[in-house]
Amino acid sequence: MYPTSSGPLLSVLAAAVAAERILEVGSGLGHSALCLAHGSGGVVETIERDTEHALLADESIAREGYGERIAVLGGRGADVLHALPGPYDLIFSDGDPAEMPLDLDHFLRLLRPGGLLVSANLFLAQFVQNLSRIEQMAEYRRRILDDDGLLTAIAPGGLALSFRGRKPVS
Which domain holds residue 91? Predict the structure, then answer.
């Protein structure tokens, strides 16, 4: 693992919530899915829209011996999420900023009460000039902070941690 990446934190979070079922949007090359599986002992479903990245993630996952516990689902989050049945114990959002608000609608449907939503890249605009889709990232960030059913904190490094309450706040 890479100690300066968010990987170790993802492993700890998966262990802390005793995650048996995990969803990730934005697999990349599979590193975060491996960290989530390592920490949890559960199964991970990870969505990746880039075909080449999905193949590389599959190879990396198999090489590390996690092929039975991690499934790479090819396609855009918006195209895959609607068909997934919940609930998930932990959801890691690291996908396309353009799809973030739509993805959040699905996350709220799929995340179990008492589950954890971990959101990456919500502050990317401070590091990348002329970043497209900044409005969608801002909308997502606003919604997770304002949702009465979520208790959200921004961790050092910029990850948002959102705990879904066991019952709605009155």
Answer: 7-96+112-123+143-164
- The burial of 127, by beta-carbon neighbours within 10 Å (0-12 exposed, 13-18 middle, 19 or more buried), is given as exposed
Residue pLDDT, tens place only, 100-122: 999 999 999 999 999 999 999 88
Q: Check: CB of residue 96 under 8 Å from CB of residue 131.
A: no
Give yes or no for a contact between 20 and 42, defined as CB atoms under 8 angstroms apart. yes
Nearest-5° Cα angle at 118, 116 to 124: 160
Q: Are 117 and 164 in contact (CB under 8 A)?
A: yes
Provide CB contacts within 8 A for 132, sequence distance 6+: 97, 98
76: domain CATH number?
Answer: 3.40.50.150
Threshold 0.90, pTM exceeds? yes
> Taken in order 6, 16, 141, 70, is the CA torsion positive or negative?
positive
